[in-house]
Each structure stands twice: as structure tokens, then as C-alpha cells.
Structure of PH domain-containing protein:
Amino acid sequence: MAISRKLLNEGEEVLASMRQHPKALFPAIFALVVLLAVGVAVQTLIDQHVVTLVVWALVAVGVLWWVARPVLLWAVAVHAITDRRIITRWGVLTRRGHDIPLKRVSDISIEINLIDRPFGCGTLIITDASTDGTVYLHDIPHVERIKLLIHNIVHELPDAHPRTEGV
């Protein structure tokens, strides 16, 4: 689950490393239950061998697309907060990522809906000063603690533009 050391600069320290809360896999689990129910229902209700084989083949394709793919994508996605930036990496064949230098963070907010509350997760919304605008990190475990961590780090950073008195 930890971020790769090769993504870090010299002297950079990882303060938190996480992936999405397993709650993000609930749609995949629901799809698995529905697909298996369809396969079993067809096998028990229809007494034709060819139809049963075709349905199970379609169930297998559905399991690969709606279950295995989301689980794999969940397993390879990682978010990390270092003392210098927020790092996000995801993707299987094509790795994608987003780095936000903490000096550019202009706003940090969270969104915890009714479903997120029992699981202790939520969406972390980070607005930076660049043209990219806003980054949404969904289903982050302990999102309030992570928001506080980022806020404290940003607050402790030296100002990028020192103020001059009397100007």
C-alpha cells in the first residue's frame, strides 16, 4: 500500500499513505452477487445445456468487467501525503498520477455523505493555485484526520511570498 520510494525526492518524508476505503468495492460486490444469481437462476430454470453455457460465459465476462477490473484498479491506486506534496497514482497498464505541491494548496475541504459516515471515510477536495483547479479524492479513510494533517503541514510551510511591512 505504501508509495514507491522512487517517487520521492531526496529528503522527502511520507506522512500518510492510503488507498480508497474498501467501501468503494461495494458496487463490484453487488455486481458479483447479481451475476452469480443470474447464472444460477438460468441453470436451474432452463434445462438447455447450450443456453446454460452461453449464460455462464456471459457471467464470466461480466465478472471480469464489473468485478475483477474495479478490484484491480482499487488495489493499484494509492494516495500519499509527504512533507512537500500530495501524490496520487492509479492505473494498471497505463499509470497515471497527480502531484500537488503543498505550497500551491489554496483550499482543503471534505464531503462526508450519509453512506460514508458509518465507514469513517469521505471525499477530500483539494483546490490548488494552478490551472488544474480542484482534485477530488473519493472514499478516503479517516478523511477528517487527513484534512487536518494537510492543513497543519500547509500552515507550517514558510510563506512563498514573504510579506513586507510598511508597503
